[in-house]
Amino acid sequence: MAGQNVITSMLDDLSKEQPIATALCIGQNIDHHASIQWQYFNVTDFLSLPFTQRYDLGFVLFDTEEMQDINETQKAQLLVKLRDLMAKRIVVVSKLDDEKLLRSLGFTQLIDKTTHDSNFALWQFNILTYKHVPDWFNSKFWANPENWNKFRW
Question: How many CB atoms sit inside 10 A of residue 142's CB?
Fold first, then answer.
């Protein structure tokens, strides 16, 4: 019951940052947030699912009984497909053992593991905040046609 309240408040906070209309869930069927259209998939169905639409949110719960039987390769395939094709933003609830995999795929940790005694961590991937745009990535440092024949290298 408390877990549902935490998920609901987290979804409300995420909706304030970016609107969430569609979401998919893997690992446990959660559809108690009324303003979001949820779709639930198990791991095998999701890995064989063709790309038909991009969801606003992907929610993965690795810390469930259903997800205990999948191996590291399937976890990586699931997260990469979700990150690259299926979702704009991803939230993952996992055990502390999955830290290396999630960091290597570009996820950032939302809850610091030192602030609690439980064996779980909360991670997110948001394509809009994934990478800071460097200073050199603008037209000032590229070949500008208006400067041709003015300067010589």
Answer: 8
Please name the residue ranges forming H helices in the chain: 2-17, 43-47, 72-81, 99-104
Q: For the chain, which domains are there? A: 2-147 (3.40.50.150)
- Which two tokens mark 95? 């055990």
Distance CA(19)–CA(150), nearest Å, equals 48
Residue 126 parent element (H or E): strand 121-126
Question: pTM for this structure?
Answer: 0.77
pLDDT tens, 91-119?
998 888 888 999 999 998 887 666 656 77
Cα 17 to Cα 13, 26, 80, 112, 129, distances in angstroms = 7, 22, 23, 21, 12
Residues with Cβ within 8 Å of 111's Cβ and at least 6 positions away in sequence, in order, are: 121, 122
Distances (CA, A) of 129 to 37, 48, 88, 92, 141: 24, 28, 11, 16, 23
